[in-house]
Design brief:
Elements lengths: L1 H16 L8 H16 L5 H27 L3 H15 L3 H15 L3 H8 L12 H48 L11 H26 L2 H10 L9 H11 L2 E3 L2 E3 L2 E3 L3 E3 L7 H29 L1
Antiparallel strand pairs: 1-4, 2-3
Length: 307
């Protein structure tokens, strides 16, 4: 019952509060630690080895720190529930992104294309200066699908495997990838290991996410697209949830985009090239919330059945 309470409290808090920016957040501390180590190590020779060393130090330290804190709280039921619920809440990142997506979509509906491009740039990595309305909405749909995997299903997956310590260790893995896992001159060698380990960590969650998306939408086309387009993406994982939502919406995602002024060629995911509409954003957001709810229900049931 304690574990079930932790899951339900944490999930409810994420649904209602998202990411309150006034509260301290462990991911910001993770980012600070990564930045300090990167500035110190990412120079000279053997950068790939140095990047791997940083990864091991930060991920193992996170795992051990939270395991130690959990052990300290364990003899005190109230403290344990508060500690675990708080970091379960911090481990999820669904409703905050949905709100950010909705903020962009609201500006798009007002017809302010310039401001919507600027707002979109706060949540996606691609260059947004010249995107059309459909391209903006395509980016929103893709971001929702990808975040559902690494912001919800993957943290829940690792919580199921090893509780809060494993969940927070995964968040460190994901933060490392988001900060140094780029193919730029600065990070190509230093961030190589972080990028590869994020691929490994998300391999199963990405595919679970895609299947859950197809299931909640009752979409046979989504299942077809998962098998047909899932491995089309340059990422070994991101293509699966994107393929699922393309099937659900019966649209085409992907295509070439600019990143830092450099054109990146990406294959299309899906078959029907059409305008992405307001109702598609509504559907994509609803699928996200439905999948998150179902995944939490599955996690709760697993605790009931297996303890």
């Amino acid at each position: 019952m304690t574990e079930i309470a932790i899951i339900l409290i944490g999930f409810t808090a994420d649904t209602l509060l998202g990411d309150p920016r006034l509260l301290p957040h462990p991911i910001r501390l993770f980012g600070r630690a990564i930045s300090l180590m990167e500035q110190s190590l990412n120079r000279g020779e053997s950068r790939r080895l140095k990047g791997a060393t940083m990864w091991f130090v930060l991920v193992v330290s996170t795992l051990l720190l939270f395991a130690f804190a959990e052990r300290l709280a364990a003899p005190h039921p109230t403290a344990y529930i508060l500690f675990s619920s708080l970091f379960f809440f911090y481990g999820l990142a669904n409703s905050s992104l949905i709100r950010e997506v909705w903020r962009v979509e609201t500006i798009v509906r007002r017809g302010d294309i310039t401001r919507s491009r600027l707002q979109l740039a706060t949540i996606v990595g691609r260059d947004t200066q010249h995107l059309s309305t459909t391209q903006i909405r395509t980016a929103l749909v893709e971001t929702l699908a990808e975040n559902l995997s690494d912001g919800v299903i993957a943290p829940l997956f690792f919580y199921g495997l090893g509780g809060i310590p494993a969940m927070m260790a995964y968040k460190m893995v994901n933060t490392l990838d988001s900060m140094v896992g780029y193919k730029s001159d600065r990070f190509r060698e230093f961030g190589y290991f972080s990028a590869r380990m994020d691929d490994v960590a998300n391999f199963i969650p990405a595919r679970l996410t895609a299947v859950l998306m197809a299931a909640v939408a009752l979409s046979g086309r989504a299942l077809t697209f998962i098998f047909k387009y899932g491995n089309s993406h340059s990422s070994p994982n991101a293509g699966y949830p994107e393929a699922a939502i393309a099937g659900i919406l019966n649209c085409r995602l992907g295509g070439d985009n600019l990143y830092g002024g450099v054109e990146v060629h990406k294959p299309f995911i899906g078959e029907r090239a059409r305008e992405i509409l307001h109702k598609d954003i509504i559907t994509a957001a609803a699928v996200n919330m439905a999948v998150a709810t179902v995944a939490v229900a599955i996690l709760v049931l697993s605790k009931v059945w297996f303890g």
